[in-house]
Amino acid sequence: MPSDSVLRLVWIYPDLLSTYGDQGNVLVLEQRARRRGIPVETVHVRSADPVPESGDIYLIGGGEDRPQILAAQRLRRDGGLHRAIARGAAMLAVCAGYQIMGSVFGGEEGQPVDGIGLLDIASGRGAGRAVGELVAETDPALGVPTLTGFENHMGVTRLGPGVRPLSRTVVGTGNGDGTEGCYAGKVVGTYLHGPALARNPGLADLLLTWATGAQPAPIDDVWFERLRQERLAATLPRA
Ligand code: GLN
């Protein structure tokens, strides 16, 4: 992204996949970019509309099984997201949106449903629902502090060789195999629910770094950090 240009955020299908306050991730990215003097333009793409290819960061959220299936069908038919990611755009995909990025995920009866194949992952149904606080140690290569958040999903996700785990689960279920989320290129997927970036500003800054090609300047994160420490203290087993 040229230094004088606007950062373009694209929020995909808020009418289908925004069940858990997912707009929070859009707001956090907007604010953290603006606080660094980066102008931002956000496009909300409803599921009847084409996905623009010229975005810098794409966001897709969580949702229930049927809207998730519909979103996968529409994204596959549309093709705009594939072209944007092939062009080098960054992306945050959360929960249902994360599962959609893979080759397959579990539908409302557990039946396999085709994903859109942007990440080398395959999801299905787990034995039970994973609900609760989640803490996970981030891949050190990413330079993002320990992740904290909330999860609420039935799905379990197997990672293929084309992706790396985003983190190792300390508390919670994540992918279901001791890892949580994944990344490949500039695409991150996670089970951390809803406004995960409000609890993990380091992840927001990773997306901004990828999108702008430069590490954003440090900003005062005292309130974010207090929340993170409070959640860690409340969630981690006592020594
Ligand atoms: N329907 C998916 C599951 O249960 C995703 C749920 C969600 O986005 N919270 O695994």
Automatic annotation (TrEMBL):
Q: Where is the CobB/CobQ-like glutamine amidotransferase domain?
A: 9-200
Which Pfam families does this chain map to? Answer: GATase_3
Specify which residues bind substrate according to the UniProt entry for this protein. Answer: 129
Similarity comment: Belongs to the CobB/CobQ family. GatD subfamily.
| A GO biological-process term | cobalamin biosynthetic process
* Protein role: The lipid II isoglutaminyl synthase complex catalyzes the formation of alpha-D-isoglutamine in the cell wall lipid II stem peptide. The GatD subunit catalyzes the hydrolysis of glutamine to glutamate and ammonia. The resulting ammonia molecule is channeled to the active site of MurT.
Q: What is this protein called?
A: Lipid II isoglutaminyl synthase (glutamine-hydrolyzing) subunit GatD
Q: What EC number(s) is this enzyme filed under? A: 6.3.5.13, 3.5.1.2
Instruction: Please write the reaction equations for the catalytic activity of this protein.
Output: beta-D-GlcNAc-(1->4)-Mur2Ac(oyl-L-Ala-gamma-D-Glu-L-Lys-D-Ala-D-Ala)-di-trans,octa-cis-undecaprenyl diphosphate + L-glutamine + ATP + H2O = beta-D-GlcNAc-(1->4)-Mur2Ac(oyl-L-Ala-D-isoglutaminyl-L-Lys-D-Ala-D-Ala)-di-trans,octa-cis-undecaprenyl diphosphate + L-glutamate + ADP + phosphate + H(+); L-glutamine + H2O = L-glutamate + NH4(+)
What CDD domains does the record tag this protein with? Answer: GATase1_CobQ (cd01750)
Active site located where?
A: 95 (nucleophile), 193
UniProt keyword annotation of Cell wall biogenesis/degradation present: yes
Q: Which InterPro entries match?
A: Class_I_gatase-like, CobQ_GATase1, GATase_3, Lipid_II_synth_GatD
GO MF assignments: carbon-nitrogen ligase activity on lipid II; glutaminase activity
Ranked from the top, the taxonomy reads:
Bacteria, Bacillati, Actinomycetota, Actinomycetes, Streptosporangiales
Record key words, sorted: Cell shape, Cell wall biogenesis/degradation, Glutamine amidotransferase, Hydrolase, Ligase, Peptidoglycan synthesis
User: What interactions and quaternary structure are annotated?
Assistant: Forms a heterodimer with MurT.
